[in-house]
Amino acid sequence: MTSSIDTLAHVDDPAPHSATPFTVGLAGMAACLLTLWLVRDSTALDGAARSTVACLAIIATVAAYELFVARVYLRPSAGLARRGIRTLSIARVAMRLTALACVYAGIGTIYWLLPEYHGAFYKPFWSLIATLAPYEAVAAPLYFAWMDTHQREIDDAYLLLARLLLRGERPSNWRPLREMLAGWMVKAFFLPLMTVYLSTNAAQLDTSLSAALNAPFSLATFRFMYDLSFAMDLMFGTVGYLCTLRILDSHVRSAEPTALGWLVALICYQPFWSLISSQYIRYEGSVFWDNWLMSMPVLRIMWGAAIVALLLCYACATISFGLRFSNLTNRGIITSGPYRLTKHPAYIAKNLSYWMVSVPFVEPLGWRAALSHCAALVAVNLIYFVRARTEERHLMSDPDYRAYAEWIDRNGLFARMARALR
C-alpha cells in the first residue's frame, strides 16, 4: 500500500512546463470547427479550400496567444532579443534570402527528379504552393530583416549556407547547417502528404457530415466522428509543418540523428506504406468491426464508441502541439493534454484502434489466416514501438525532455497503475 507521504509527494510533483498549453490547442480547434461550420454552405469554396481557411483560423488563434500572451519570442530557446541589438544589414539579409532560395531550388529539383511528385495525387499541394508563393515572396525579406536586428546569434544556418555556397567558406561548426537542412527535408516530405491527406479528408468529411445529420443514430455518426478525428489531426499537422518560425519559438531545435529513426518514420507514409502494407504486412482481412458485430447492436455501439474515443485521444495528442507538430524533429517539448498520461499517447491510441477496427483475429477463412493477420498487425505495432524508442533517444538530448520523462516515470498512467496494484 502506498503511504500518505508518497501520495503527498505525487500531489506536489507538478508536470514540467509545456511548450504549448493544451487549452491553447483546444482554442485553436474550436476556432477551426467554428470556421468550418460558418463556411459549410459556401458555394465559392470546395472542401479543400474550407479546410485551408480552417487551418488559417488555427494559426491565427494559437499564434495570437504565443505572441501576445505567452510572448514566446522572449524565451531563451527562441534566441531573440526584446529589442533590436544591432543595425540592419541589407547584405546579411540578402545572403540569407539567397540561402533560402537555394533551399527551395534544391527541394524543387528533388520534386522534379522523382516521378512520385508528377502525378495528380499531389495536385492539392501544388495548388497550396501557388497560393502561398506571393505571400512568401513578400514576407520572407521582412522576416529576415526583423530577425537580423533581433537574433542574438548572427551566424545562423542560413548565413552559414550562403557563405558556403557564395564564398566557399566552410563553417567551423556544421551542426546548425545540418539541423536546418534536415528540418527542411522533413518539411519537404511531410507537408505535401499532409496537404493531400487533408484535401481528401475534407471531401469525406462533407459527405459523412451530411449522412450523420440525416441519420444521427446510426453508423453514419461513427463515420463522421472517425473522419472528424483525422481532420483535426491533419489540420494541426499541416499548420505544424507550415509554421516553423523562430519568432513563434516553433523552429527546429534538432532533427532525428539516426538512419533507423528516419527509416521507421518514413515507411509509415506514402509512397512506402502502400507497397509494404500490400506486399508484406497486410493485416486487414475480409471482416471489420462493424459487420462482425452486426448481430449484437449494443456491443456494436460500445465498440464503435471505444474506437472514437481512441481516435479523439489520437487527435488531441496532435492538438497538444499547437503550431509545433512535426515528425523527426524537436520543436519544443509538450507535456500537456494526453502527454500528461504517457510519452506516446498518439502511438498507443492509434495502434489500439488498428486492432479494434480491423479485428484481425476474426477471419471466416480460418485460424491460419487470422493468425497471419494478427502477426502482421503485431509487426505494425513493432514499427511504432521502434519509432517511439528512436524518438525518445533523440529527445533525451534535451534537458526539458529528460525532466518530462522522469516525471512520467513517477506520475504517468502506467506508473499510477503500478502503484494501484501494489
Automatic annotation (TrEMBL):
<feature type="transmembrane region" description="Helical">
    <location>
        <begin position="94"/>
        <end position="113"/>
    </location>
</feature>
<dbReference type="InterPro" id="IPR007269">
    <property type="entry name" value="ICMT_MeTrfase"/>
</dbReference>
<feature type="transmembrane region" description="Helical">
    <location>
        <begin position="260"/>
        <end position="281"/>
    </location>
</feature>
<dbReference type="Pfam" id="PF04140">
    <property type="entry name" value="ICMT"/>
</dbReference>
<keyword id="KW-0472">Membrane</keyword>
<feature type="transmembrane region" description="Helical">
    <location>
        <begin position="180"/>
        <end position="200"/>
    </location>
</feature>
<dbReference type="GO" id="GO:0016020">
    <property type="term" value="C:membrane"/>
</dbReference>
<keyword id="KW-0812">Transmembrane</keyword>
<feature type="transmembrane region" description="Helical">
    <location>
        <begin position="301"/>
        <end position="323"/>
    </location>
</feature>
<protein>
    <recommendedName>
        <fullName>Isoprenylcysteine carboxyl methyltransferase (ICMT) family protein</fullName>
    </recommendedName>
</protein>
<feature type="transmembrane region" description="Helical">
    <location>
        <begin position="51"/>
        <end position="74"/>
    </location>
</feature>
<feature type="transmembrane region" description="Helical">
    <location>
        <begin position="228"/>
        <end position="248"/>
    </location>
</feature>
<feature type="transmembrane region" description="Helical">
    <location>
        <begin position="21"/>
        <end position="39"/>
    </location>
</feature>
<feature type="transmembrane region" description="Helical">
    <location>
        <begin position="125"/>
        <end position="146"/>
    </location>
</feature>
<keyword id="KW-1133">Transmembrane helix</keyword>
<dbReference type="GO" id="GO:0004671">
    <property type="term" value="F:protein C-terminal S-isoprenylcysteine carboxyl O-methyltransferase activity"/>
</dbReference>
